[in-house]
Amino acid sequence: MPFSDAILLAPGSQLLPLYGFRVPAGFPSPAQDHLEREISLDEILDIRAPHTYLVRAAGDSMQGAGIFDGDLMVVDRSREAEAGDIVIAALNSEPLVKRLASEGRQVVLRAENPRYAPRYILEGDELTIWGVVRFSVRCHDPR
């Protein structure tokens, strides 16, 4: 496993209630108390064990993509990375999370924060893609 803090996922069996309404983030509306169905986090996060692992983000280079320091990223290592995907990669054996891009035949790793310059993959660089970030999970509990 590329990251010492990565967590491999196994299929889960715990079902959680999914309600068939959206909670307004503005003004409250009358309660709509109807259960649509039960669903597992595996289904919500498209977990395809054993091809999925979790790893935490470090730093602020991906904030523009909604990935913040400490967020848990759900990574699918079975998916072929394409331009536009956010990837977990090793560039010259250094792990990182960036958006995969191309300019003509040139491969580029881009941060989602203007403070960070794009990294062009040059001849002699070794780039290994460890998976495509499918989701990120952030804790909102202040405790």
TrEMBL record:
| Protein's GO biological process | DNA repair; regulation of DNA-templated transcription; SOS response
Lineage, top-rank taxon, reads: Bacteria
Fetch the Gene3D superfamilies from UniProt.
Answer: Umud Fragment, subunit A (2.10.109.10)
Q: Which residues form the Peptidase S24/S26A/S26B/S26C domain?
A: 17-133
Keyword Lipid biosynthesis included in the entry's annotation: no
Q: Which Pfam family is one of this chain's hits?
A: Peptidase_S24
UniProt keywords, alphabetically: Autocatalytic cleavage, DNA damage, DNA repair, Hydrolase, SOS response
> What Gene Ontology terms describe what this protein does at the molecular function level?
DNA binding; hydrolase activity
Which InterPro entries does this chain map to? LexA-like, LexA/Signal_pep-like_sf, LexA_repressor, Peptidase_S24_LexA, Peptidase_S24_S26A/B/C
- What is the similarity comment for this entry? Belongs to the peptidase S24 family.
Q: Which PANTHER family match?
A: LEXA REPRESSOR (PTHR33516), LEXA REPRESSOR-RELATED (PTHR33516:SF2)
Name the UniProt record assigns to this protein: DNA polymerase V
Q: State the organism of origin.
A: Pseudomonas linyingensis
